[in-house]
């Protein structure tokens, strides 16, 4: 079963804590029936909450898991919704992971006390599109009450149930590997002769800022492209390289991109560039940051650059990466 994920809402701005659920699921078709195979197949749970505090994560996921597992919902993995949507390559890699694990149901949870929400849908339904509303079971309100509502309705659904050997505690889903080719700590000189594909963000103001920043700082040819165009189609259009990014807490960012981390370290130094001038800035491991890189569309290789050029501002992270590229390649 192929998952249809058209990610027109996934942009460089997805780091707004606690707002990902609202941005993607406010305009859904909500109906009263749950997926018919909910109690015979595997489910994955995505949590959107305003904190990354591990104790709070454990408290929320344990309360949710304890309630829904009583009805036979087999929630095999729990993911931070923000991390799954931290970048296009990350998302597509998680899609492959879900397919390999034969996940059939997706459960999205916004934890916000009295303003919480739950959305349940089958995995083969189109979702996260800008022009196609998705359908599923949705409840809003007090977290405890809507979790109870999911348990009650699934228990009384009359659905066939074969899920009996369930996890007794919620398991956090494994980190994915978004780079399918090689990760290179340098830049590709082939960018001098290849037009760079730059996916639009889906936000007019940010696309304007993105385009103008590239015009001002990027030394070679580029073109903004619709972010719904698959990579194989971009290849047919003549693009060999694409601009990608990941936005996540720095510790997750380093793990996703394969950078080593030292035990006990709370900050890493990041380079900040403006023209020929540069400085080193400490960034907390738990701070949200953005890292840009260039991806080879033919091989899947990622050119990460020679420096740890993250920034807590996405546009500054882009400028850091461009000026690092220009210095190291003599552009």
Describe the structure in brief.
29% of the residues lie in helices and 26% in strands. The chain has 331 residues and is α/β, with parallel strands linked by helices.
Outline the structure in words.
This protein has 331 residues and is of the alpha/beta class. It has 2 domains: 20-155, 3-Layer(aba) Sandwich (Rossmann fold); 183-329, no CATH class. The chain is built from 9 helices and 14 strands. It has helices at residues 20-25, 54-69, 81-84, 88-100, 143-155, 204-217, 231-236, 250-257, 314-329; strands spanning 29-31, 42-49, 74-80, 103-111, 116-122, 135-141, 183-184, 196-199, 222-225, 241-249, 267-274, 277-284, 288-296, 302-303. The strands form 3 sheets. It has a 6-stranded mixed beta sheet. Strands 7-14-13-10-8-9 form a 6-stranded mixed beta sheet. Helix 2 runs parallel beside helix 5 (143-155) and helix 6 (204-217) packs parallel to helix 9 (314-329). The longest helix has 16 residues, at 54-69. The radius of gyration is 21 Å and the shape is elongated.
């Amino acid at each position: 079963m192929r998952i249809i994920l058209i990610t027109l809402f996934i942009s460089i701005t997805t780091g707004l804590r606690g707002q990902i659920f609202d941005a993607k699921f406010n305009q859904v078709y909500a109906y009263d029936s749950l997926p018919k195979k909910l109690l015979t197949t595997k489910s994955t749970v995505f949590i959107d909450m305003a904190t990354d505090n591990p104790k709070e994560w454990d408290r929320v996921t344990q309360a949710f898991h304890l309630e829904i597992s009583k009805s036979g919902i087999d929630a095999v993995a729990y993911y931070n919704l923000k991390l799954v949507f931290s970048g296009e390559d990350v998302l597509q890699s998680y899609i492959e992971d879900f397919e390999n694990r034969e996940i059939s149901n997706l459960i999205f949870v916004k934890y916000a006390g009295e303003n919480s929400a739950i959305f349940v849908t089958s995995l083969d339904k189109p979702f996260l599109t800008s022009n196609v509303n998705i359908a599923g079971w949705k409840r809003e309100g007090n977290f405890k009450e809507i979790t109870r509502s999911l348990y009650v309705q699934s228990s009384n659904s009359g659905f066939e149930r074969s899920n009996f050997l369930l996890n007794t505690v919620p398991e956090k889903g494994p980190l994915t590997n978004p780079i399918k080719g090689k990760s290179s700590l340098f830049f590709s000189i082939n960018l001098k002769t290849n037009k760079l594909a730059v996916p639009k963000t889906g936000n007019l103001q940010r696309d304007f800022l993105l385009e103008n920043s590239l015009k001002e700082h990027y030394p070679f040819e580029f073109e903004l492209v619709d972010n719904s165009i698959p990579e194989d189609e971009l290849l047919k259009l003549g693009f060999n390289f694409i601009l990608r990014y990941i936005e996540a807490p720095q510790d997750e960012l380093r793990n996703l991109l394969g950078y080593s981390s030292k035990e006990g370290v709370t900050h890493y130094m990041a380079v900040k560039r403006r023209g020929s001038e540069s400085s080193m800035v400490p960034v907390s491991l738990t701070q949200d940051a953005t890292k840009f890189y260039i991806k080879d569309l033919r091989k899947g290789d990622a050119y990460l650059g020679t420096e740890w050029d993250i920034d807590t501002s996405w546009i500054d992270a882009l400028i850091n990466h461009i000026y690092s590229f220009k210095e190291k390649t003599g552009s």
